[in-house]
Amino acid sequence: MSFAAEHSLASAKTVASEVVPASVPVRPLSLRINFSWILAGNVVRASCRYGMLFLLIHFCGLATAGRYAIAVAVCNPIWALVMLGLRGAQVTDAQNEYSFADYLAVRVLASGAGLLLVAGMILCGGYGFEATITILFVAFARLVEGVSDIFRGRLQQGERMDFIAIALFLQGLSALTLMAVAGFLGAGPTLLVATLPAATLLTLLCWDLPCYAGTNRTDASDSALWRQPLQWTTLRQLGFVAFPLAVVGFLIALIPQLPKYYIAAIMGEEALAIYTTIAYSITLGLMVVAALGNAAAPRMAKYHAAGETRAFIRLLTQLVAIVGGMGICGVILVATVAPRMAAFLGHNDSELPHLAVALSLFATMLYVTAPLGRALSAMRKFWWQAATIAFGLGIAASLLPWAVRVRGMAGAAEAMAVSMTVTALVTAGLVWLGLSQRVCQESPAKLEAA
How far apart are CA 176 and CA 188, in angstroms? Predict the structure, then answer.
């Protein structure tokens, strides 16, 4: 390790002693407190990014917001793939099979591959100069977030989601504040978008690194953590272990982005900005659905491993009922708010209320599919889950070109609602099949024991 790197780590620890005082306990928090913290952090960050979209529309117009939506649509699925599900593998690595340096190295290498994929998409997509700059800024922000994600994974291992939630607060609020200040000072679209990677980098340097160093200062191996040599065999093994989760994450990230590709290509950037603004409520709802799923996933896995099929079905039914109710409430709320949203966007087309309702139906089926997918994960049927999502995306890809050309933005939402309905039904059927197989395997053993 070089002297400069050692000095950098020592500086990070010094800052950590100021950010995380020595008197702060690093013992784990309860499940309920951790759930509350991470839900609040995700909702605040998502809300701030929604506010950034409105600021782009206010300061630069719908075309700039549309370019930003294209950049997000290009980068998010790529980064969902190159993230390789390492955060989940790291958090569940209770035996410390792989070191922190291994996880960080794989993340950095995979992120470099992600940048190459983004560059390839730019070359093949024929984007203009401004759209290219926007895509690169968003890609850099995703790269920095990926590095922060590994540091936060170590905090999650220690069940300290409060530190992670504060990082999400800082990241969202700082990006929103920087964009607002830059906009009021008359900055152009390029500088406005540059506030996103700037805020992400500031959060990594000023919070994630200090918190990691501060909460690990009693770890005897911490001083040698950065000096250990990296072994390529170990890195390949870690990448292979996480690959199924990466495929599932990529397909899930592609679901809300897929209609944007067709809308941008057929209807243009302004239509994409309108669609993205109204559809962003789906992202906020997914934060709640994801938090519920994360809290329930360990218990579902425990029920399945113990053969408690009735308890498994009961918990799954409760989750589906909760998220289905959320979706229905969203349909009512969005149908009420849609006319005001149309007035704000300066788009008085009567299509918008129809678009809002269709998006809410799409969101409802997406929410319902989420706990069913968690059930397949709890049953260790990762490839089944990937196959069902890929099947639904195939249906959507076949419907979207016709739907967008004939019915516009509302047609895109309707096509996604149809595809997610089919996905939910197929996923439910696979859950039933998996449970039936489990019951059939257990019955002979129970009879023999009796």
Answer: 16
**Mutual orientation of helices 382-449 and 232-266 as an angle, nearest 10°?**
120
Can you give the pTM of this predicted structure? 0.72
pLDDT 10s digits, 235-283: 677 767 667 777 887 888 888 888 988 988 888 888 888 888 777 767 7
Name the region of 61 (left: φ>0; alpha: ψ -120 to 50; beta: rest).
left
381 to 51, 132, 239, 433, 440: CA distances (angstroms): 38, 39, 19, 11, 17
Question: Cα(356)–Cα(340) distance, rounded to whole angstroms?
Answer: 12
- Are 200 and 145 a contacting pair, CB within 8 Å? yes
Please, what is the Cα angle at 85 between 84 and 86, to 5 degrees?
A: 90
Residue pLDDT, tens place only, 355-380: 877 888 888 888 888 888 888 877 77
Exposure class string for 314-324: b at 16+ Cβ within 10 A, else e? ebbeebbebbb
Give how far Cα 248 sits from Cα of 244, 258, 260, Å.
6, 15, 20
- Grouping H, G, I as helix, E, B as strand and the rest as coil, residue 367 is helix
* Whole-angstrom distance, CA of residue 42 vs CA of residue 327: 19
Question: In which element (H, E) is residue 288 found?
Answer: helix 269-306
Cβ contacts of residue 352 below 8 Å, gap of 6+? 274, 278, 338, 339, 341, 342, 345
Sign of torsion over alpha carbons 191, 197, 200, 201: negative
Termini Cα distance of the chain: 63
Residue with tokens 């996103």: 196
Name the 3-class secondary structure at 349.
coil
219 pLDDT above the threshold of 60: no
What is the distance between the alpha carbons of residues 63 and 352, in angstroms, rounded to a whole number? Answer: 18
Taking a C-beta distance cutoff of 8 angstroms, is the pair 345, 57 a contact? yes
Residue ranges of alpha helices (H) inside 126-220 are: 129-157, 161-184, 189-203, 209-215
Query: Rounded to an integer, what distance in angstroms lies between the CA atom of residue 353 and that of residue 340?
Result: 10
